[in-house]
Specification:
Number of helices: 10
CATH architecture of the domain at 5-175 and 228-235: 4-Layer Sandwich
Mean pLDDT: 96
Distance between the termini: 55 Å
Helix content: 25-40%
Number of strands: 13
Radius of gyration: 19 Å
Bound molecules: zinc ion
Length: 314
């Protein structure tokens, strides 16, 4: 196998997208009878990796029938347009709330440039290109589609973002969860257990909707989850309660530290240290920063946006 790819059971291949750092973001190839679905796409730099892994499997780019970003955040969908250009047989399967951003990414690009800067965006995500409307399938909740003989099912899962769905694969009894079932970096595994946390990314974090989405996924009795960040997670039932709890605890920390004088970033960082301690996970501060700094920053930004939305509703 190529160094950035990993063969999983059930004809699924995990590919490190090359976004930001190794081990941060994955996408997945699901294969049945020589036909392929790509779930999440990573960024522009991911496209050559997908092409190389297909070639290694003896498959051409024309064997890709579906390209399926779980939502339109750029670490999941930034490379979708470029991948669609490469894979001319493919349809894009996307949440109805995300489709217009794939067809005309100008607002997506403007929003990301505001955060990363023009040059920063180019470096981290690369070029974002529009997708022909005729090739886009807007997948409503419970939309089913066939990859050769393998059925894939879309489940609407708001909470991390309103334009987020998860993909159920009957063969593996697993969900491709994007960010809905949280983030678990292998570097933070301890005693065979993952440390899983909910990314409250701007600007649509919604605790209530997220709880409902997690419960909905678990109603399928999944045996595994394929996390974008990062890799296959077995026995998801073990992690369900802590994910629910952390959503509420992060929201509560935001409420308790709502004034401009409060240092929410420090409070959230301490909270993550505590959570790792509780699990007996000893990691030094360099590794903590290396693995978590980017996410902690985004989590805090998302909590602040959520808080200001709450206050407007009061
Ligand atoms: Zn996301």
């Amino acid at each position: 196998m190529l160094c950035y790819s990993k063969q999983l059971d059930n004809n699924i291949i995990q590919i490190d997208t090359g976004y930001s750092r190794p081990g941060l973001a994955a996408c997945y190839l699901v294969i049945d009878s020589g036909r392929v679905a790509v779930i999440d796409t990573g960024v522009e730099a991911t496209v050559v990796r997908v092409e190389a892994v297909l070639a290694e499997q003896g498959l051409s780019v024309d064997s890709v029938d579906f390209i399926v970003p779980t939502h339109v955040h750029l670490d999941h969908a930034g490379g979708a347009g470029k991948l669609m250009q490469l894979c001319q047989n493919a349809s894009l399967v996307i949440h109805p709330f995300g489709s217009r951003h794939m067809i005309d990414p100008s607002r997506l690009i403007a929003g990301a440039e505001a955060v990363y800067g023009k040059e920063g965006l180019r470096r981290s995500v690369g070029e974002i290109v529009p997708i022909d409307r005729d090739r886009v399938i807007e997948a409503q909740d419970l939309y089913r589609f066939m990859l050769a003989n393998r059925e894939l099912l879309i489940i609407d899962t708001p909470g991390h973002a309103r334009h987020h769905f998860c993909v159920w694969d009957e063969v593996s009894k697993g969900f491709f969860t994007g960010d809905t079932f949280g983030i678990a970096y292998p570097e933070l595994d301890c005693d065979g257990r993952s440390f899983i946390f909910p990314p409250s990314t701007p600007v649509q974090f919604d605790p209530q909707a997220w709880h409902a989405s997690i419960d909905r996924l678990m109603a399928w009795h999944p045996e595994r989850m394929y996390l974008t960040h990062f890799g296959q997670l077995n026995e998801p039932v073990i992690y369900m309660n802590s994910l629910h709890r952390m959503i509420d605890e992060l929201a509560a920390l935001a409420v308790e530290n709502a004034s401009p004088d409060d240092d929410l970033a420090t409070v959230v960082e301490q909270y993550f240290h505590q959570q790792l301690d509780i699990r007996g996970c000893q990691i030094d501060s360099d590794l903590f920063s290396h693995v978590l700094n980017l996410d902690l920053d985004i989590i805090v930004q998302g909590l602040r946006v959520w808080l200001s939305r709450q206050n407007r509703h009061d």
